[in-house]
Amino acid sequence: MLGIKVRLWTLLLLVVLFIPTMETYTYFAVAYNNDFQLITYSYKSSAGTDNIYPGSKNVELNVNIQYIAEKDAIVSSACLQLPNGFTVSRGASYCSSPYSPNNTVVSSVKRNDVVIFRYRLDVGPNVSPGSYPITMVVHYYKVNGESIPYTETIEGITILVEMYPEINIDVIDWYWSPEAYPGSQNVYLYIILKNVGDSTILQANGIANLQYGTFTPSSIRFRVPTLNKYSTATITLGPISITSAADPSVPYTIELVLDATMSTDDNVVYDSSETKTFTITLTTPSPINLEVLDYGFESVKIVENAVQTRFYVTIINKDFKIVRNIVAYYTILSQGANFVNGTKSAVSIYNQVVNYGDTVTLYSRPINIGMVDRTDIELRLVIFGEDNGAEFWCENRYYFTASIDKPHVNLVVADSYWIDREVYPGSENIRFAVILENYDVVDVRDLVATLEFPSNFYPKIVKLTDIDIPKGSRNMLVFPGISINSNVEAGTYRVRLEVNGIAVVDANTFYKFQNSYTLMVTVSTPPNQTILNVVEYGWLSKKAYVNSIGLRLYAYFMVSTPGFSIQNPMFTVYLPKQMVFQSLTRNSTTIVNGVFSYGQTIYVEVPNIDIIAHDEGVYPIVVRVRGLTTGTQSFWYDGTFSLLLPVYNPRLNVTLVDSGWQNDIVSSTTSGATAYLTLQSLNIDTISSLIIQLEFDGINVRFIDGRNRSITTLAGPINYGSTFTAIFTDIEVNGTHINRIVARVSLIGIIQSYGMYYRVKEDYIVELCMLPVLKVFVIGAIHTQYGGVYAPLLPSARSISINIDLVNIKTYSISWMRPKAYYTPHIIRVNDISGTCLYGSAPSGTCSLVLNVDVEPSARPYNYTIVIEVEYGIQRGNAIAIYSDVLEIPIAIASYNYYKSGVRPTTWYWGIQTPVRVLEGQRNVPLTVIVTNGGPHPVNGVEVELEPIDKNVTMLNRRAVCTPVLNVGGS
Question: Class assignment of domain 36-161?
């Protein structure tokens, strides 16, 4: 059945009256009463402006309304209702008579007539700025024969009270009088101000803040007189003093802080303040034209090392400006010269007036000149000047270069010689004489003469002091106490003579000088013969090896010349670069005390020799023998001998006896394995310590810390025939079906022999065999179940469990097992794998794997194979070895016909439990169908589905669940 609903909608028409804005502060509004409507209203201040402020008086308010009623009316008045703070002006009233647009008073109005009401208001000084609404009440009578008074309230009148105009002053110009320079005093700053605000400034007090440290004072008070709108006034700040450090190129900011009494156009008086900032600059002083006439040093002769001379400059004023004071800053720019106080700068002050055309000479502080050929000086004049009454500071800079001569005195060596006699190697306490002649024009005072001999002369340096050589005179210098080393070879030697002293030119000028000379001295050849021979030498340890340390060298020397003896000989051993003493030197001296005559032997033993050679070979050792020899005359013997000694490559004679794994099972995937190496020493010398390193390839085998090598050490002594075992733990094997591991074994040993030690290294290659396949499990039994009882494996079977009993045929305890991979026919799907085997197996024990599978409905009865690869771990000691076995599981899918269900419908009728009669056209008739299980197996989830054959019968529910389980013979 269809139903129709009708809804009526009412259309609401909204009329919006738009009244445009006409002029400033004139407003239009809509009157909601019946007889009058507000047309316009306006207000003005007493000055005729549109701005109203707190305190404004005699504000003129005009209100225009229109009469819109049909009947004529007589309007008596209209009265205002004012907000707080608003009052009527003196002489005015709250009520106003009506006026016509031509300013005549009216009383009678007709439809559409416009009447005007006029008021004068005062705004209280405490009224806050903002919009204020005013209500007007109109009193009138209607001309209809009745004398009934009417009133109508007019709303929509608003007066805007504005904030006071802020003070607004512009700085339109400024100037200094007189000119302001850095350093000027008592100058005045004139500032021209303009009132650009909307109010008159009745009076203003201000403070001018100038930059502190540049201007003094930095804060100055001033007063601004009455200043009308757009009028200007000039204020004066001063007297002001300016620091000499001020920069004319930098604009300086001045802040004017003003507190003013203001007056609006309608004479409302109020206070206002303003802070105004602007910048000023100073006049750049022009330099004074001071020209240099002459400059230089006071001393007539200026040389290096001159002391206490002054630099002077003579200048002339060629400018019309007056110089009141000069401060001269002298700076020595070059190296090697300083003022007497050790600095590079000095200051001199000249307090005298220099007018146009005047000259003045400026002198610096005393200067010490060093070892330089010239001196560069900068002169900076800071001048306090005056120009037409304006005082100022300015700077002039000048740069000077003065040449410096080399200090020298013409002293000539006239002669030099040994005083005593002919000298030989080993001579002592001899004297050397030098004669000097002064051919210069200066006197030499306090001369110091230094005679420097080459090596093997003692002392190497001999000095004489306090020597004076006046000009045109000579002096003989005698250098005593000289000895010659016995190692000196006979011949001619260069001797350096150096003299330095004070050269005095006059009473005020002196300087230091230094002269150098090269002299030749002769050492004669003493009588000498070869008296020693080497009869035997070698290593005390019989052999020396590369890397040996602590070796001892021995040698026998014999006095082989008759009539000679040697006393306390010194043996100095010089090693080649392949050897070094333990003191990190390559030479060592041994003294053998005693007097050795003809035929006697001298035994020398030199310890602490280390071999640093990398290769074996025969290396020379040089022995130098020196001593006092006595024969027909005494002299120093000095002989050199070369000893050739062999050095061999060391060899470590250690045999690898056995190698393998401590844990008997190691697979291609093992963690924590332990390897052992059994070694035997066949070394004749004793092994003090041994480092054993095992190194893998780092790809399939590593140690547990990620490295591919590990080191173990053995402490000696390890003697000939000793055996020892090295253990390497925490080895990680991670390969794929590898049968063996190749490793490198490195042995590094320290070997001792006769008190000396040497280092040797040998490498070996070992193979560690693996057990890649173990085959621990075999299949013991296979059976299928469903719900814990036997069930055949049929097409379309779901959640069937295949129980596989596995037998551990080894003596190893299995820690865990996991199926690594499986392969099934496409008609079988494995849902889950579980069982006790996942938690391990005891040796010779059994465990089970349970496969939960589904069989596709399209499966044909046949014998199939499921292949499962299982991975399991075996722990032996601290090692865990991982193996895998492949299990082939035969399964058979039975024929569905053999196990087909025997469920058949046995009874059916209309009705529930009891048959009922059904008529044509009857609806919702129940139908009961009884089914019976005549087969050999219970049936789960029995559903009955009916399909009507007669098209006159319609099934509301075609399918119904009969029972979850239908046992054999049940219905």
Answer: mainly beta
DSSP 747-805: EEEEEEETTEEEEEEEEEEEEEE-------EEEEEEEEEETTEE----TT--SEEEEEE
Q: CB neighbours of 950 closer than 8 A, spacing ≥ 6?
A: none
Could you read off the pLDDT of 243-269 as tens digits, one per residue? 888 888 899 999 999 999 999 989 999
> Strands across the sheet with 59-67, in order?
36-44, 59-67, 114-123, 86-88
Beta bridge partners of 340: none
Q: How far apart are alpha carbons 25 and 501 in whole angstroms? A: 106
Secondary element (H or E) of residue 278? strand 269-280
Q: Are 92 and 119 in contact (CB under 8 A)?
A: yes
At 163-185, the pLDDT tens digits run 999 999 999 999 988 888 888 88
- Which residues, including other chains, have CB under 8 Å from residue 847's CB and lie 6 or more apart? 805, 806, 808, 817, 835, 836, 837, 839, 840, 841
Cα(486)–Cα(587) distance, integer angstroms: 19
- Radius of gyration of the chain measured on its C-alpha atoms: 65
Integer CA distances (angstroms), 83 to 121, 132, 134, 156, 805, in order: 11, 7, 7, 13, 106
Residues 641-672, buried b or exposed e (16+ Cβ, 10 A)? beeebebeebebebeeeebbbbbebbbbbbbb
Alpha-carbon distances, residue 730 vs 74, 490, 706, 707, 733 (angstroms): 122, 75, 10, 11, 10
| Terminal alpha carbon distance of the chain | 46
Topology annotation, domain 169-280: Immunoglobulin-like (2.60.40)
Count other Cβ atoms within 10 Å, centred on residue 810: 15
Residue indicated by tokens 């990620």 = 706
DSSP 839: G
Bridge partners of 161? 130
The rounded distance, in Å, linking the Cα atoms of 831 and 854 is: 7
Dihedrals φ, ψ of 839, to 5°? -105, 10
CA distance 709 to 294: 87
Within 13 Å and on the Cβ side, how many CA atoms surround 631? 19
Which residues make Cβ contacts (< 8 Å) with residue 127, sequence separation at least 6?
54, 85, 86, 161
CA distance 639 to 532: 8
Strand partners, 450: 463, 498
Fold for the domain defined by 411-523: Immunoglobulin-like (2.60.40)
pLDDT tier for residue 11 given thresholds of 50, 70 and 90: very low
Question: Domain 290-403: which topology?
Answer: Immunoglobulin-like (2.60.40)
- 340 in the Ramachandran plot: left (φ > 0), alpha (ψ -120 to 50) or beta? alpha
- Among residues 230, 123, 103, 224, the alpha carbon closest in space to that of 168 is found at 230
Strands 709-718 and 654-661 come out as: unpaired
Contact between 27 and 158 (Cβ < 8 Å): yes
Domain 777-893 sits in CATH at 2.60.40
Domain 534-647, classified CATH 2.60.40.10, yes or no: yes
- Please list the residue range(s) of the chain that carry CATH number 2.60.40.10: 36-161, 169-280, 290-403, 411-523, 534-647
Residue range 362-405, pLDDT digits in tens: 999 988 888 888 899 999 999 888 876 677 788 899 999 988 88
